[in-house]
Amino acid sequence: MVLDLNVSIRENNSIPVIDLEGEIDVYTYPKLSDALQYVFETYPNAKDLIVNLDKIRYIDSTGLGVIANGANQIKKINDGFINIINATPQIKKIFDVSGLISANFKIFDSESDAITSLTK
Amino acid sequence: MVLDLNVSIRENNSIPVIDLEGEIDVYTYPKLSDALQYVFETYPNAKDLIVNLDKIRYIDSTGLGVIANGANQIKKINDGFINIINATPQIKKIFDVSGLISANFKIFDSESDAITSLTK
Amino acid sequence: MTNIKLTIPSLSDYVGVVRLTASGIANRMKFTHEDIEDIKIAVSEACTNAVQYAYGDSPGDIEIVFSIFEDKLEIKISDSGKGFDIDADVKTKEDDPEKIGLGLGIVFMRSLMDHVDYDTSVNGTTVTLVKKVIS
Amino acid sequence: MTNIKLTIPSLSDYVGVVRLTASGIANRMKFTHEDIEDIKIAVSEACTNAVQYAYGDSPGDIEIVFSIFEDKLEIKISDSGKGFDIDADVKTKEDDPEKIGLGLGIVFMRSLMDHVDYDTSVNGTTVTLVKKVIS
Ligand SMILES: Nc1ncnc2c1ncn2[C@@H]1O[C@H](COP(=O)(O)OP(=O)(O)O)[C@@H](O)[C@H]1O
Ligand SMILES: Nc1ncnc2c1ncn2[C@@H]1O[C@H](COP(=O)(O)OP(=O)(O)O)[C@@H](O)[C@H]1O
After folding, report:
1. Closest residue to atom 3 of ligand 2, CA basis
2. ipTM, 2 decimals?
3. What whole-number distance in Å separates Cα of residue B12 and Cα of residue D5?
4. Which of C133, C135, C1, C132 is nearest to C67 (CA)?
5. Of ligand 2's atoms, which has the minimum distance to the CA of residue A65?
6. Between chain C and chain D, how many beta carbons pairs sit less than 8 Å apart?
7. Of A14, B43, D96, D103, which sits 20 to 30 A from B65 (CA to CA)?
């Protein structure tokens, strides 16, 4: 849906995956925060969490802030990571500009790349 | 492209087909008028012309006006018809409201329906 | 009630921009996809008329005010152009085959919206369009 | 030069509407797809700040003026809120881990646009964003 965000949660190889569709901005970001909190409660021992941006058509500093906060949280709890997959070049640029990449999250091109790396 | 109109012209079974993509409004309709004039000049004996709305995401009275004018013209020259294909339900509604359907153009669901009917 | 106001020059280039703004606003309300398409067409028809007829050769401004209510969206499209005689001008359309317009704009607005009101004088024209949220 | 003006209430609901309007306007200029995405983000960041910081608990208006030049798009985003001390407020961000914001909004604007200017006082804030058309 234009101007809105849809969130759904599933597992791949026991790793929780958050699929996002639409736009993440100051209006929609609470849906993403809620999903992150839900995953942290449902998988209290998870070391990894995948966030799938395949169908994200817009993200700005609000969305990056939520993801960075989530990354800090999973680091603190389980020394874990948020793993971003399917970011478009535009979204990668935004992560670059933010200077956040080197912090507590990793970026993979595809879900299979992420799963291969995280399960080995 | 959002807010713009792309036009291309081809033949199917010797019938000229105008493929349209985008939006037809007060800004873009001259592109459609030009394409119609081009087809009338290039195919001076054509009894039928197909206008493919498959990739049209918006049309209003401006676009309908151009199509209706084209239909009048081909009627006058060759006693011919404009044949609309792939109109969405929303676009069909607009044609309905306009009261133009019974006039000089026909509506077919698909290109193959139109070709079958026009070549028999 | 919340108001959003947009002002564009009366150029055909920007009618699509009004349409985008309108669809964004309608998306925040409980309209169906079909309602949103209806609103886009109606607001475009009103703006198209202001572009084509209000100002003659020297463009002026078109002001669009969106008023968001719990149960309806009201859109006022105003120009400061020359106005028209709504009964006379609409009737004579069929006598003038030279015109591109078929007299469909106002017909479309009336059939796609729940309420359409024209306020027109030598000081300009304001069209009020209302679409109700069906719940 | 052509001006388009949009006024919205300072509610998060309508930042996306500004984005749609901005992308429609940018589409009428010779910007690349990437430029248009940059413009959408920068204008959203400025509006998001006005929504989050300008007015405290009672929302006011945000006015966005798009000025279309042959060779650039200039966007002014204004609120009548409380303003801020641009040097102090940006520095202290890292000391306040409770805040959702990471101090990225202004960083994004500066890196995505060709020119960013802040004019802020107790009477409100105006951000001017400029993106050049590369030809
Ligand atoms: N904003 C306006 N300013 C001046 N004249 C207008 C305006 N809107 C409509 N009109 C007049 O009303 C007539 C009917 O408009 P409409 O139903 O949209 O059909 P069309 O545009 O095909 O003529 C127009 O031809 C014009 O003379
Ligand atoms: N329009 C505004 N009105 C008041 N304060 C503002 C405005 N825009 C920015 N600020 C202040 O500048 C700070 C930095 O903004 P920004 O770089 O967007 O980062 P963030 O939103 O993450 O804090 C904000 O935290 C706020 O204190």
Report:
1. D54
2. 0.94
3. 47
4. C1
5. 22
6. 61
7. B43
Touch C-B: 3+ C-beta pairs under 8 A: yes
Q: Report yes or no: B12 at the C interface, CB cutoff 8 Å.
A: no
SS3 A54: strand
CB A65 within 8 A of CB D102: yes
Strands A105-108 and A81-85 turn out to be: parallel
Cβ pair D104:A61 closer than 8 A: yes
State the smallest CA–CA distance between residue C106 and chain B in angstroms. Answer: 9
pLDDT per residue, tens digit, chain A (120 aa), is 579 999 999 999 999 999 999 999 999 999 999 999 999 999 999 999 999 999 999 999 999 999 999 999 999 999 999 999 999 999 999 998 888 766 678 999 999 999 999 998
A27 to chain C: closest CA residue: C28
Query: Is the separation of the CB atoms in A3 and D16 below 8 Å?
Result: yes
Does the predicted model carry a pTM greater than 0.90? yes
Query: Chain A residues with CB inside 8 Å of D37's CB?
Result: 90
- The alpha carbon of residue B73 is apart from the nearest alpha carbon of chain D, in Å, by 32
- Please give the helix or strand (H or E) that residue A69 lies within, else none: helix A61-78
List the single residue in B with minimal CA-CA distance to D21: B3
SS (H, E, C) chain D: CEEEEEEEECCHHHHHHHHHHHHHHHHCCCCCHHHHHHHHHHHHHHHHHHHHHHCCCCCCEEEEEEEECCCEEEEEEEECCCCCCHHHHHHHHHHCCCCCCCCHHHHHHHHHCCEEEEEEECCEEEEEEEEECCC
Q: Which chain A positions have a beta carbon within 8 Å of D48's beta carbon?
A: 25-26, 60-62
Tens of pLDDT, residue by residue over D63-81, are 999 999 999 999 999 999 9
Closest to A58 in 3D by CA, of D20, D133, C33, D7: D20
Report which secondary-structure segment, H or E, holds A117.
Answer: helix A111-119
Q: How far is the CA of A108 from the centre of ligand 1 (A)?
A: 56
Model confidence band, residue B101 (pLDDT cutoffs 50, 70, 90): low
Check contact A-B (3+ Cβ pairs < 8 Å): no
CA dihedral for A22, A27, A32, A34, sign (positive or negative): negative
Encode pLDDT of B17-70 as tens digits: 999 999 999 999 999 999 999 999 999 999 999 999 999 999 999 999 999 999
Which ligand has an atom closest to residue C80 CA?
1
